[in-house]
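Q: what does this look like with zinc ion bound?
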Amino acid sequence: MIDRITIRKPDDWHLHVRDNDMMRACLPYTARNFGRAIFMPNLLPPVRTMAEGIAYRERAMAALPEGSTFQPLITCYLTDDTDPDDVERGFKEGVFTGVKLYPANATTNSAAGVTDFAKIERVLARMEKLGMRFLIHGEEVDPAIDVFDREAVFIERRLIPMTKNFPGLKIILEHLSSKIGVEYIRSAAPQVGASITPYHLQLNRTDWLGWGNKPYMYCMPVIKTEPDRLALRDAATSGDACFFLGTDSAPHSVAKKLAVVGAAGLFNAPVAIETYAQVFDEEGALDKLEAFASLNGPRHYGLPPNEETITLERQNWVAPEEMKVEGPEERALIYRGGEVIPWRVVS
Ligand code: NCD
Ligand code: ZN
């Protein structure tokens, strides 16, 4: 039995730290174990221009603990009106690592997202030319489509045509959530890769809804069936280069999570790498953790892996229940709060 593992420092290829008080509260959890993270741009208002990207990166740097070497990677929120020249400047000046597509109204803070896919073609053509990465929340929001089928329909209707129209565009389908999605990624790699969250690896929809409605398991894309979960575990632990770590850690205040129309998103940064280690251990695949957490993501993004390492040990600890936040948001509950976690980061 393996009780201790050292891997290159991981990166988080999909993270929400929000802004201001919430960012100051939650960013240290990520900065402690990860070298870099892709910062999602779905703020209110979103990060839509190079100028907004520079300002957000400065606020993020100011929220980091003293002496931290953590690097925020900022992304541009795509709208119907995004200016390809601004995107190009943002990329060339090292402000934007990629551009993020939210179909309008697919998830938290996506109201300003894309409503007309014809309007974004000029931006996609420019990104293809520049070698800039395209990050996608891959869900079709047509009200005629069942919420559990949104990912599969998006792949058919939107993603496959985009890969054909822009064959040189390197894409990330984020927070992959279905067996159909896993099969698609295998067929579309290396042009398309996918990040996988800890909670899609752990939960099925019976956990979420079968024993009382658990708002703390509500996220987009929604948690799916047991066969979907098993396909995702198989994909993540395969070591295949097209699958990599992206926590989708997404803190919300308790009030927003428990409102009549509750916010989608789970705050998992305090237990993220430990949860992945547990999943890989359960699958007898600890030898593949480094590929998934620390190598495949940088390769898909065309970046070097981190030089530093982290060490995890088999050691029980209890996850904190909540995180205090200054100001009106007050507190956010932590995914797996109060649970015994069998792996711990020791250095
Ligand atoms: C995310 C959030 O809260 O910003 N919510 C979620 O359910 N995952 C947005 C997202 O990534 O969809
Ligand atoms: Zn997200």
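The pocket of zinc ion (ligand 2) is lined by residues 14, 16, 40, 248, 250 (CB under 6 Å). Residues 150-165 form the longest helix (16 residues).
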